[in-house]
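> forwarded from #structure-qc
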C-alpha cells in the first residue's frame, strides 16, 4: 500500500514530462512542414522520400532522392518563412505594412 502513492507521483512526473517534451517539440518543429513542402519542389522528390533534420539557429537540412538542400527559417507562432540557405528569409517583422498610407499610393 505504501508504494501506491509513490507510483502515482512517479506516473504524474513521467506523464507531465512527456507532454511538456511533446509540446515543446511541436513548437520548436513548427517549420518542418514548411521545409518539407519547399524541399519537395526543390529536390523534385515525393515528400515520403524526404528526411528533414533540424539543426541550430533555424537551419534545416532536407535529404531525398539523392539530393540535399539546406534551408533557413524564421517562425512567428506557427507561421514560418523558409528560404534556401544563403538567401535571407524575410522575417515577419521586416515585411512592409501594406495597410500603411505609404504602401497604398
Amino acid at each position: 500500500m505504501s508504494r501506491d502513492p509513490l507510483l502515482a507521483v512517479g506516473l504524474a512526473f513521467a506523464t507531465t514530462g512527456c507532454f511538456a517534451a511533446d509540446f515543446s517539440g511541436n513548437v520548436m518543429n513548427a517549420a518542418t512542414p514548411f521545409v518539407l513542402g519547399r524541399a519537395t519542389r526543390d529536390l523534385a522528390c515525393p515528400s515520403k522520400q524526404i528526411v528533414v533534420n533540424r539543426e541550430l539557429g533555424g537551419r534545416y537540412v532536407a535529404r531525398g532522392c539523392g539530393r540535399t538542400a539546406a534551408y533557413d527559417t524564421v517562425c512567428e507562432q506557427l507561421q514560418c518563412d523558409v528560404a534556401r540557405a544563403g538567401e535571407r528569409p524575410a522575417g515577419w517583422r521586416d515585411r512592409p505594412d501594406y495597410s500603411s498610407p505609404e504602401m497604398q499610393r
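QC bot note: The radius of gyration is 20 Å. The CA atoms of residues 73 and 82 lie 5 Å apart.
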